[in-house]
Amino acid sequence: MKKIGIDCDGCLVDFTRPFLGYVNDRLGTDFQYEDVTDYDFEKVFGLEPSVVDELVKSFFDTTMFRALRPESGAQEAIAKLREKAELVVVTSRPLGIEQETYDCLEEYFPGAFSDVFFANGRTGNTEGASKPAICRQLGLGYMVEDCPGHAESCAPVVDASFLLRRPWNESESPGGVVKVNTWQDIVDHFYE
Prior knowledge:
By secondary structure, the chain is of the alpha/beta class. The protein folds into two domains: 2-14 and 69-190, Rossmann fold; 16-66. It has helices spanning 16-27, 41-45, 49-59, 63-66, 74-81, 98-108, 131-138, 148-154, 183-190, and strands spanning 2-6, 85-91, 115-118, 142-145, 160-164, 177-180. The protein has a six-stranded parallel β-sheet. Helix 5 (74-81) runs parallel beside helix 9 (183-190). 35% of the residues are buried.
């Protein structure tokens, strides 16, 4: 059976819009979704990485974070993909929000994922394996990402690394990556 790894934020659930609302409230700014033209928020906000990291960590403690909603088309696509493959989540979320992650996935994608893996990342999980290492370890054939760097780093160890088009990866063309516009494009790949 095929195995697909899927990133959580920006792929399964919309982290960016609620986070922008939180940042705008805290900083008195007016950032819009379309303004996020780089994966690194510090470049978008013009702030030091440590300040952005603190904003992200404090956002995790809010009701806004616990009320994240699915990305457009994600629920329907996951329902179809689970008919064709084993699905796992491979996220860079920090270990401190494991339960919130499980709760969110179970609320919007009940029973869809065989497991959730927390890869190393900026926001607190420095001990986990990298996303490519997890892909290799699990024998994943496919990875779905919104981060160009993660999509590119996973590409050599999977059959196809899909990059869901978002404002922050619009100008990116990472090597070995399949850029797709919507979740339906990914579903179509498996139903051709």
